[in-house]
Amino acid sequence: MTEDRLAWTDWRDRWPNAKHSRFIDAAGVRWHVQVAGAGPVVLLLHGAGGATHSWADLLPRLASDFTVVAPDLPGHGFSAAPTDASRLSLDGIAADIAGLLATLGVVPDVVVGHSAGVAILLRMIADRRIAPRAAVGFNAALAAPRAAADSVLLPAVRFLAKTAGVARVISTVARFDGVAESLLQSTGTVLPAEQRARYTALARSSAHVHAVFTMFANWDVDALRRALPSVATPTTLACAPNDPWIPPAETAVVAKTMPTARLASLPASGHLAHEVEPAAAIDTVRAAIQPHG
Asked: What domains sit in the chain, N to C, each tagged with a CATH number?
């Protein structure tokens, strides 16, 4: 099967914040990264299956006060996958993001993540690759791998993953728009048409989907959870009460293991609440920064 990746030339005129996009070679990956604004550095990491479009409305708002750095994760969106597929893991991605930051010559003052992006940021903090003064996680994916897979994958896709392997899953997802639409509906978030179209395009890219499923296969959040009590960075874990993928009660259990974590609420807009409620998301970030500024 030939893997296809979204072509930047086809999307740059309709990709959010494209004027801030650049392509950087670092840590063995050709990255798509958006850099905007001036001031202390805020690092944004999207979740599994997403790309920089997840920060469409947050990036320009934060760029009024900060230098915002938002990459596509390896293999996601317009970023290439590493040659070594084992790098598509929690530890591997954390190390490669650190390599990207070193190449860019930036040191994050604040880090903000969504879903799996939160786990990557906390892994980086626990490994002392970064030492931000504050961290914010929207609907953080900190469940054990089996629970995360059960909540994220639709039954039909999960069945294919168990019986026919990743290649079958990729070809199925890429071929049928209905799978992407069903996944979006399962988030509990009602996205505008243009954002749904971007997610659908990503789901039709076998290269993107291959990276997502490889990441799931390599994911080890149990080791991270054992390290969380050592994370001293003040961390805000913000949850949407109706997130069907990451139940807030699950996040509350994790937060109790972190000495400086606190819980916050997002509007009842599902797993992608930060995309459709950007004002509330920005308020959450500013509230997390204010006590330490």
From this structure: 8-292 (3.40.50.1820)
